[in-house]
Amino acid sequence: MDDFGTYDYVIVGAGSAGCLLANRLSRDPQTRVLLLEAGGKDDYFWISVPVGYLYTIANPRTDWCFRTEPDEFLAGRSIHYARGRILGGCSSINAMIHMRGQREDWDHWASLGNRGWGWDDVVEVFRFLEDYERGRDDIYGAGGEVRVENPRVRWDIIDAWREAAAECGIPNISCFNGGDNFGCAYFQMNQKRGRRWSATNAFLRPVAHRPNLMVLTGASVLGLEFSGRDCTGVRFEKDRKTYHVKAAQETILAAGAIGSPQLLQLSGIGNAELLQKRRIPVVHHLPGVGENLHDHLQIRMQYKVRDVKTLNGIANSWWGKAAMALEYFAFRTGPLTMPPSQAGAFARSDPSQPTPNIEWHVQPLSLDKFGDPLHSFPAITPSVCNLRPSSRGFVRIKSADPSQHPEIRLNYLSTEDDRKVAVDGMRLTRRIMAAKALAKYRPEEYRPGTSITSDEDLARAAGELGTTIFHPVGTCKMGRDAMAVVDDELRVHGVSRLRVVDASIMPRITSGNTNAPTYAIAEKGARAILKLRGAAPI
Predict the structure, then answer these.
(1) Which of 108, 296, 471, 493 does the annotation list as catalytic?
(2) What tens digit of pLDDT does each residue of 171-215 get?
(3) Which terminus, N or C, of the chain has the lesser number of Cβ atoms within 10 Å?
(4) The listed CATH number (3.30.365.10, 3.50.50.60, 3.40.50.1950, 2.40.50.140) that belongs to domain 2-533
């Protein structure tokens, strides 16, 4: 094993969190930072084109291509589970939707004893990071690295759906992210002039010239190194050679909700029973590592429509494809700037819910499953998801081999509450689709179909139609209870000089897309580290 030297900080994973951390921690030219990324450079053509997620998800060049274990309540299905394996991580392949979550999400974290994580604490962080295209206003910040822009294409069918939602008591609003997302709006995105704005664009590329920052791609971390319970660095493999590198200050895991718990377990930190079964020496018994996995499951209801333009018709025509390409490359507008979903809505699934607990992602298209061709008929897909699922799963290594994907089990819809919210959300979707504003387009339910009416049948249909929105969180949760993995400064309990800074630390998932909250987590993590070293505030 070759010696790669010593750095002040070794960061594992150059995704949304890792890129921000590298930027912040290398600001002091006297601080040496090493950023390790298993994937390659983000120079693939389809990364920068917003609709390119169609070609980056399920592509081993850019995606880890994990699969979940079959779920009983998903009709026994296993799901492709995309995670970014490229500079920028998931921010290079995700939906680009900028969603902070709601006040209730963050205040819940604080109520668990996590100091400094309430809504009023994190709003300042979001505003510091944001660069809204229209400048600073009552909600958004300006001048930060995270570009936030409004959509560059609109659809009559989406506008009509918004009016239909308003008829059902879900008002039209200008944007989300003010703390209470109740309402319906077009999503705002992390794009800049019609191109994807990833963590690499925002945080890494502007500081790549720093001599004290080294970024290694194609570097697969094999495990952490310890002296007792003191983390001293990592082992990694690059170009078929194995190296060890020391971290003089700290080692920081930013490998995401799958990668971070996997590396902890491979390194002897986790449930001792699991580690012993996998013949891994136990460094520290920490039973919460890999547990508390949860995610947003969307129920993809689909409706045929008439006399209105949808992406199905455009994308299934050679002339339509040519027109889309011409518009994009000439003006950076049109369907090629689209995220997977264009508009959303937040509401309560029933009046007893204290805050909006369901969200729709509305698409002017339909297809059997991701990666399949669009249907030949015009259609709309209003997918509804439970924002606060109670079902919990886990990530557990299957062996001591770092190259073997771990067991990923979500247990979607395994609780009565989650099945009830799914059924209530489907019924409310039907109410919206039956509203007067959509009548002129004569919507016809294609999936699950009007013959599905009972609660039992709807719950079964939810399992057959449901699929992930790729928001795994919680596997190294922050807190003070017996299953917590990190404290409120993201230090791993019972171990020195080791932090986890990514979406895995969420005690409970935020409302909506998780990339913007991951940036906020990374910013707060960087501030905690720099405060410890006595550096000036960012």
Answers:
(1) 471
(2) 999 999 999 999 999 999 999 999 999 999 999 999 999 999 999
(3) N
(4) 3.50.50.60
